[in-house]
Amino acid sequence: MLFDSYGKYIFYDGAMGTMLYKYGLISGEKPDLMNITNPGAVEEVHRMYVEAGSDIICTNTFGSNSLNLADTGHTPAEIITAAVSIAKRASNGKAKVSLDIGSTGQLIEPYGDLEYDEAYEMFKEMAVAGEKAGADFVTIETMSDLPELKAAMTAVGENTELPMLVTMTFDITGTTYMGCSAEMFVEAAEALGASALGLNCSLEPPQMYETAKRIANATILPLIVKPNAGLPDKAKGGYHTGAKEFAEQMTEFAKIGARIVGGCCGTTPEYIKELKETFNKLKGYKYMKDIFSPTNILIPESVSLESWAVIACDQFSSERAYWERVRKNAGDKPSTLNMIIPEAYLEDIDEEKEIGKISSYMDEYLKSNIFREYKDSFIYVERTQPDGRVRKGIVGAVDLEEYDFTGVSAAIRASEGTVLDRLPPRIRIRRAALLELPHIITFIDDKEATVIEPIAEIADGLPLAYDFDLMEGGGHIKGRVITGDDAENIMKAMQNLHERNEMLMIMGDGNHSLAAAKVYWDELKKDLSDDEKETHPARRALVELNNVYDPAISFEAIHRVLFNIDADKFISDFKNAMPQGTDYTILWSMTDKTGEIGIKADCIGDMLTLMQDFIDKYISGTDTVVDYIHGDESTKKLSESERCVGLILPAMDKSDFFETVEKSGVFPRKSFSVGHAEDKRYYLECKIIRG
Asked: Are residues 494 and 617 in the same domain?
């Protein structure tokens, strides 16, 4: 992808005009003409920026449009051709050359006299000349009028193949002088094909911060920040913020995701050199967005982990015998069983009383110091499943601001419909909880194996956090601690993956738990300051990250068992309602017989939607109850009861998973599961969620 070859941060150059004044430019003259009258000076400025560490240098063409050059005797093509040639000589292959396009200085109708089509043609002339001369990018900067920005971006996008790096200039309120907000800018720039976007000029770094944060929160594109060197210092000349202070101020933008940084008015090669040296020392800051990050993870020590770890609460929901064995196994020992409510018992419990017990146990476990805290860490997990396959994952924290379960486009998305009625108990538990315990699994589409697999190769050298057998035939689990540069490499690999895929993660298991965490966070943040929203522990939720292409991962269908129903009539009506075909087969079973139904559908998501819609309508207003069952045998066994019918669904090919969600949206609720019931994630790691 466009920025894959760069490091964590990409460095622009600084001001051109500020430097050219040192080489004879007189106030009021057009800097662009020095490409013809004094090309050596322009080349020297470029060379100084390259030597200072700039990865991208902008041509001396900010005002090289036909309107600005009308009385000079030179054409835009002449100036731009010379400018690109000068910059490429100066860069000598060490930096990319970006054609610089600035504002015309005129307002487009109806606010001014410049016609949109005239502006479009001016920008087209510049862009075509720049591409022909060999520019690598186009930088469209210092724009304040949204119609002018649209004219420039449309002209570049329709007439060249050059990637666009786009910035507007805002006042301290986050609005351009023509009334364009940061969010309006982001929406327009993304729609018109920007490769990166941000803000430049007008303000010094601290004054830009809030607007930069608004832009960062509104986009997943790389964020550009290019402030002025403070304010003009009329007494001493120049600008009042020195290079070192400027660089230190700029580090605040790294915390909100700035990827491409540089300077505008008053900045010089000294500023860029200091900026690069300062940024290269930064550790732990995010660029773009740290959607998946290390966090402070609690793991018990000096207790029986075999009794501590229990399977996800939504498993074996119709098999209380399983949970009775778990209770016997845990006994009086510390156990996550004391901090969950198994769904098998939801109908019978006093919820308020159980939530009180959960809170008490969490408080007791924290006060008794049974946990060891691994700060700023990931946990690399190897789960040996009952079938012997080893599933590899990384436990870390996801940003709930980047997750959506309603079907809206987001970096983290639900894979199937969320049953809203299942959220309230989970939300009430979370409101009262000191800790969270994850059974959540999220997937990444990492066919090239760039995130988890490199850690697997060095796992033997990482500190051991746990290594034990899981109860009730759950296999074996081993966890190792990831910190420092290894953690940084994971975040960098995730960011690279995100540049290629807007949809970074899809939920595998535990979507309702993550949805409850999201709802709780949305409630909580209403009363928090902006700074508190950034750092509050409830904003991020623990999950296990898996690569969908891990050979140990298989998608298992979640079957349906309908209780208190005329089974024969249901099967007859269901078969008649479905489009007949051979694309997908549903097996059915009841007390004394079994059979199958062939269904025609374009994809498995469409087939599941047809089935679920039929069931929902069929049982509406009746006493029929549907349970969602993991495992063929469990489904068959339950359907042997009188007035019951089981539907055994086909499994999904995991290679179609991301593409199907991208095209068709969420699957119907309870469409699939990761592996068999025994393969599900066990509660083990914890994280504090109280501020």
From this structure: no
Confidence of residue 4 (pLDDT cuts 50, 70, 90): low
Residues 256 and 366 in one domain: no
Give strand ranges (E) for 539-607.
540-547, 555-563, 580-589, 594-599
* Residue with tokens 């198994």, as numbered in its chain: 342
Apex 177 CA angle, 175 and 179, nearest 5: 55
Q: Which domain holds residue 569?
A: 555-650
Q: Verify that 415 and 454 share a domain, yes or no.
A: yes
Task: Answer yes or no: are the C-beta atoms of 521 and 418 closer than 8 Å.
Answer: no
Q: Which residues of 252-280 are buried (b: 16+ CB within 10 A; e: fewer)?
A: bbbbbbbbbbbbbbbbbbbbbbbbbebbe
* Segments in 53-174 forming alpha helices (H): 76-91, 116-133, 146-159
Residues 482 and 587 in one domain: no
Q: Is the pLDDT of residue 287 over 50?
A: no
In the chain, % of residues over pLDDT 70: 97
Q: How far apart are CA 204 and CA 212, in angstroms?
A: 12
68: amino acid identity, one letter = N
Q: Is the dihedral of CA 337, 342, 345, 346 positive or negative?
A: positive
pLDDT at position 651, please?
84
> Phi and psi dihedrals of 550, rounded to 5?
-60, 125
Q: What is the pLDDT of residue 286?
A: 46
Verify cis geometry, omega within 30 degrees of 0, for the bond prior to 425.
Answer: no
* Whether residues 571 and 532 fall in one domain: no
Strands (E), 519-640: 540-547, 555-563, 580-589, 594-599, 625-630
- C-alpha distances (whole Å) from 327 to each of 21, 287, 309, 630 are 79, 45, 12, 21
Same domain, 116 and 139: yes
Tell me how far apart the alpha carbons of residues 481 and 667 are, in angstroms, rounded to a whole number: 35
List, for residues 435-444, the tens digit of each pLDDT value. 999 899 999 9
pLDDT higher than 60, residue 285: no
Q: Are residues 268 and 301 in the same domain?
A: no
Residues 603, 609, 615, 616, Cα dihedral to 10°: 180
- Split into its structural domains, the chain has a count of 3
The DSSP symbol for 556 reads: E
Q: Measured in Å, how far apart are the chain's first and last C-alpha atoms?
A: 39
- Is 665:408 a contact under the CB 8 Å cutoff? no
Mean pLDDT of the chain: 92
pLDDT at 3: 78
Residue in the structure block whose two tokens are 């069983």: 337
Sorting pLDDT into bands at 50, 70 and 90, what band is 556?
confident
Q: Let me know: does 187 contact 213? Beta carbons within 8 Å.
A: no
H or E element at residue 430? helix 423-432
Taking the mean position of all CA atoms in its chain, how far away is CA 188? Answer: 21
